[in-house]
Amino acid sequence: MKTNKSFTKRLKLTKTGKIVARKPGQNHFNAKESRSTQQDGRRTQNIVVTPKVAQRFINTASTFKN
Fold first, then answer.
1. What is the pLDDT of residues 8-62, one digit of tens each?
2. Which class would CATH give 5-63?
């Protein structure tokens, strides 16, 4: 199965094996949001995936542990 590269580029694998990504939907139209909401959109969030899903979206599924 091919890797979904557009989604893979949005993910980062940490040294301890966690997958992190930015919160979706926070790139624009934030002028009316409160400052705390704007800052929350910049923080990363942990993504929990099963090994099968990791194989679909990330090249090295064997490095992911639940």
1. 788 888 888 788 888 877 778 888 999 998 888 888 888 887 887 777 766 654 4
2. few secondary structures
Q: How far apart are CA 61 and CA 50, in angstroms?
A: 9
Instruction: Break the chain into its structural domains and give their ranges.
Output: 5-63
- Count other C-beta atoms under 10 Å from residue 58's C-beta: 19
Nearest CA-CA partner of 8 in 59, 65, 64: 59
Is the pTM value of this prediction over 0.70? no
Burial class (CB in 10 A: 0-12, 13-18, 19+), 20: middle
